Structures are given as structure tokens and as C-alpha cells.
Amino acid sequence: MAKFDANFSLKRLQNRYRLVVMNDDTYEEVVTFKLSRLSVYIVLSTIFVLLTGLTVALIVFTPLKLYIPGYGDVNNTKELRELKVRTDSLEQEARYKNLYLENVRNILQGNNKDIKEDTTMLKIPKTEKIDD
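Above: the chain sequence. Below: its structure as C-alpha cells.
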């Protein structure tokens, strides 16, 4: 089994390479880079860390975070729940009012067939007389 030589691996990372970009028609050198594996690794790692940091900063410091499920502001969700309850109660009140107005309209037009009459008897207590 081959031994791992840390000194050899470090030398491999530090070997210098040349990257040349040439014009295909004239074979003229446009750009020349002197690179090593270590410098390429450092540059790519730095770009990755910067892009990740920018993405996180964009989400945290802008309203984009509201589009992440479960990340919304607690006050906003509380207000939304209250508005939902109020909306439901208003819809129910509107239904009751429409039913009431429809019943009044039927009574005024003489359509008493659709109206259910209240058949319960009210027990009204007699008032007491106070003698002076």
C-alpha cells in the first residue's frame, strides 16, 4: 500500500501552470494566466463563499424572505388570522342580512309560503304592582 506523503501533495498543489488564451485566426496570445492548483481552489472557494453570502443577505435583508414558507413575520401572521376571522364573521352577517331582507320582501309581496313561522310561545312574566 502506498504511503501518503503530505509534502508531495503540497508540492503538487503549488506546481505552476500557464493558461494561454489565443486568437484562433492569428494565433496571437490574448491573455496569459500563471496558475497553480492551490490558487484555482482558493479563487473558486472565495467565489462560492461570496455568492452564498450574497444570496443569504438578499433573502434576510429584503422582503424576499416573506416568500419562504414559515418564515413570515409573526405580527403579520397574527394580523392575517384576525382578518380571516373578521372576514368570516362579516360574510356570515351578510348572509343573515340577505336572508332577513329576502324574508321581508316575501312578506311584503304576500309570499308567506316560504317563511317558517315561529311557533314557540313566549312566557312574559307579569309585572308586579308596588303598593305605596
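The chain has a mean pLDDT of 85.
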